Amino acid sequence: MEKDKAFKYNTDIVGTTKVHSVKSDYKINIKNEVTYKGIEDDGLYRFNIVETLYELADYEDPIMTQIAEMTNRICSIYKEIEIGINAEGAIEKIYNRDEIRKKWQKVKEWLTNAHPLESYEIIRAKEYELSNEEMEIKNIRFIHFLHQYFFIFKQSAENGNVRYIKKNEMDRFGGGIVIPVNISLRELDMEDGTIERTYEGKMVRDNKVIERLRGFTKDKYMHPEYKMTGKYMYDNITLLESDFTITEELGEFYYNHSYLRLTLEE
Q1: If 0-12 CB within 10 Å is exposed, 13-18 middle and 19+ buried, where does residue 164 land?
Q2: CA torsion angle for 87, 179, 262, 79 (degrees, to 10)?
């Protein structure tokens, strides 16, 4: 990726969620501008990322729409973010934390006025998170674009061999439970000089994690499932396109299936 050049990406997301008896289909369109700023002295890859569009095109359930509205308003404080990424694709530093906190004060005021009862605990949790950079980083890495774009950053399988990676994912239902996932990564050199990387991931059957998920769902007999598949196309280190599928099923009442399609526009 050329240093200091802005690359524009479009992400389309479609999915289905089920929480108890309520099932909702949703569509989201996101546009981002990504600028690679170079490697810092500490070895981190510095990126400036600006969200230029976030459109929640469809969400059927009115309660979930309200939750999505508050979540999107909170995430708006990260419309421009300057971050340091390590070679594994993990965020290790936020360079513009002061600007983010100034934006939070305006969002906090909006939440208090628009949803005074519903937002109380949300505000309290976000205030605590913003006081702890490590916790803040753990949460923002699951923002749709950041999660997908950096998922296999700088990772490859030599000579087309399979490489095995272990990543920690977060459940999609607000339980804050970390789910360990084993991923197999394959690489293929294409005739046009680009590189195709495909992966498959499945949940590690960790007894402590399963017990926490059962406690969250209040279903002591359920068997959770978490699967991921995807494909990334690169020209050298410039990401051209990727697709990303996540399926999570926590017993009878909790289900999520999301498909994310990311393309380089210019």
Answers
A1: exposed
A2: -80
Which residues, 6 or more positions from 67, have their beta carbon under 8 angstroms from its beta carbon? none
pLDDT tens-digit readout, 12-56: 999 998 888 778 888 999 999 999 999 999 999 999 999 999 887
User: What is the spatial distance between Cα 109 and Cα 165, in angstroms, rounded to a whole number?
Assistant: 42
CB 222, CB 250: distance < 8 Å = yes
- Non-local CB neighbours of 62 within 8 Å, separated by 6+ positions: none
How does DSSP classify residue 193? Answer: S
* C-alpha triplet 120, 122, 126: angle, nearest 5°: 120
Q: Rounded to an integer, what distance in angstroms lies between the CA atom of residue 122 and that of residue 138?
A: 17
Contact 260, 243 (CB under 8 A): yes
Question: H or E segment at 50?
Answer: strand 45-59
Give the angle 66-225-249 at the CA atoms, nearest 5°. 30
Relative to beta strand 80-85, strand 225-235 is unpaired
pLDDT, tens digit, for every residue of 100-109? 999 999 999 9
